[in-house]
Amino acid sequence: MIDKKNPTILQMVLVLMLIAMICTAGVAAVFKLTEDTIKEQAANKEQKMLSEVLPEHDNDPTKDTVSISIGNNKSVLCYIAKKGNETVGYAIKANNKKGYNGKVEVLVGFKPNGTIVKTSATVLNETPGLGSKAAEPKFADQFKELNPAEKELQVTKDGGDIDAISAATITSRAYTLCVATAYNALQTYLGNDAAKIEANSGATSSANYNADERAFDSDTLQTNADSLQQNIDTNSVK
Amino acid sequence: MDNKNSKFEIFSKGLIKENPVLVLILGMCPTLGVTSSAINGLGMGLATTFVLLFSNIIISIIKDLIPDKVHIPAYIIVIASLVTILQLLLKGYLPALDESLGLFIPLIVVNCVVLGRAEAFACKNNVVDSALDGLGMGLGFALALTILGAIREILGVGSIFGYKFLAGDGIIGFVLAPGAFIVLGYMVAIAKKLKK
Prior knowledge:
The complex is a heterodimer of chains A (about 240) and B (about 200).
Chain A lengths: L8 H45 L11 E5 L5 E9 L2 E14 L2 E9 L5 E9 L12 H4 L28 H22 L2 H45 L1
Antiparallel strand pairs in A: 1-2, 2-3, 3-4, 4-5
Helix pairs in contact in A: 3-4
Chain B lengths: L2 H10 L15 H7 L3 H25 L8 H23 L1 H7 L10 H11 L4 H31 L1 E2 L2 E2 L12 H19 L1
Antiparallel strand pairs in B: 1-2
Helix pairs in contact in B: 1-7, 3-4, 3-6, 3-7, 4-5, 4-6, 6-7, 7-8
């Protein structure tokens, strides 16, 4: 048998190989057993999310999707809800990485005229107790029945009509930007010229936000360069 | 001490006397990371209990086959497989819990409580004792995490197990990382006092 204290290399290799094989077999078996259930759970979750943000419909929106390009090689997924043959709503999943903890993804349900039915966060890893409140009705319900053509889709701090969550402006901005991205994508898809102007202005305001950020960055860089220069000066004096 | 008593002793020492969190101070990563609510603490505790129980059982069975030089990799393979199985089961049957625990489930692999018990107990004792030890240690871990989570949830959000009993916000700091350290510190201090 195996000598516990002074094993040969072959014994060690064989034992490890055997254990690895048995363990892998076990994991593979459980994976096979749970594979279908896991897929079912994911599909259920998506369906539940969609039925929350879409108006009443009788098709399966998960099977009726289009991908809309939004520039920069990016695209968003759009679910189409139908009742009979009539389109009753769209749900668009938009995301950005401007959250306080990275990615924020929001599913936005629209009526065909562009009015938002409801929004729901699908990915939100924000700080518990602060940014996580974006999922709560107090913030998320502001978008209910709101038509982005009539209101400014920005937080009040940036001159818009959305009240940011206190102490979580960055999260609020990221969430609002998701909604704006979704709205722009919808207008691109519909090819609606009149609304497209609105969509463009929405896009411009988010571009402004980016520009602000860049300006801020270059300020910081400038300050850093200044202090570096100062250091060099003092050093050369020494 | 007769046999029955010592069996009970093996099981119960993990609960209080050698509680992995409060006395041995092991497994701090999930302890501080996931206990922002009582239900998360309980879920994490029970998930770890599952892994501990089965890893202790399996390791005590195979302990005589494993050469000393390779025992750590062998144990890690067993533990990692169990954790993967656990994660698949959670994804399939308890997706809500899987989502709220997130990254901390795969991290059970490197939880020192699990490897610690394999090293300190399962590789020297028989199957029954190892199972009892794993169960006791796991439940002790779950107990500590649930209490920690409950205190943080009560102070931080004003709710318990998701049931809100206070209107408005709590003391947000207790839901965030500093709250975990503060509450854990007091809990360790109280456990030390009680042990004396």
